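Key result, reporting period 2: structure in, sequence out.
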């Protein structure tokens, strides 16, 4: 290889490196825009906790995985991933759903509320405050699902007896068995 061809090769690769570093700087400015578009992914617009979100998802992505893994809203928990525990409960247009059971793309334009959109540690939703007051959790893994379900329940045609509330909350499993405290918290908000 001649000295001339070596210098030419360095020149080309040097230019490429400079372009690469420029692209890298752009990527750092907005990593989501710079992320490569995955083959087969589809665009999706959602309103999450009052904020418009635009993303691309694989059509097989569940709403739960889109919330947790793409939008980093990890307050919504994955328990069974099969619609059996209620840990993944969120509100879609005001109604409770198990987010592990539907594909994210089915929710184009929908308004999604997660536990992060309900209240804050300093300004809790009354249901969150009631759960704290009644010690309605132990490990806490089921708690965001329990609270989202309980808040939605308040707008459903459900009677006020303990038995009726237990039945309406039966899709939310608590492995720690905090059921009596959860019931007490819900009853407090219904009486308030
Ligand atoms: Fe969705 Fe269990 S994780 S119901
Ligand atoms: Fe542990 Fe409910 S508080 S599973």
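The corresponding designed sequence is given below.
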């Amino acid at each position: 290889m001649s000295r001339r061809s070596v210098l030419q090769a360095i020149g080309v690769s040097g230019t490429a490196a400079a372009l690469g570093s420029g692209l890298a700087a752009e990527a750092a400015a907005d990593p989501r825009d710079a992320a490569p578009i995955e083959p087969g992914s589809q665009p999706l617009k959602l309103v999450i906790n009052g904020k418009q979100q635009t993303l691309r998802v694989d059509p097989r992505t569940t709403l739960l995985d889109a919330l947790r893994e793409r939008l980093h809203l990890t307050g919504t928990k994955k328990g069974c991933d099969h619609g059996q525990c209620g840990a993944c409960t969120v509100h879609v247009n005001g109604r409770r759903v198990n987010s592990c059971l539907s594909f994210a793309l089915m929710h184009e334009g929908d308004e999604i509320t997660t536990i992060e959109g309900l209240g804050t540690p300093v300004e809790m939703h009354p249901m969150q405050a009631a759960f704290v007051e009644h010690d309605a959790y132990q490990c806490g893994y089921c708690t965001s699902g329990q609270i989202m379900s309980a808040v939605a329940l308040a707008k459903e045609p459900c009677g006020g007896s303990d038995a009726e509330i237990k039945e309406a909350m039966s899709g939310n499993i608590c492995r720690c068995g905090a059921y009596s405290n959860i019931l007490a918290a819900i009853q407090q908000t219904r009486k308030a």
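Confidence is low (pLDDT under 50) at residues 3-29. The beta strands are 42-48, 51-57, 89-92, 95-98, 111-113. This case is discussed further under Risks and Mitigation.
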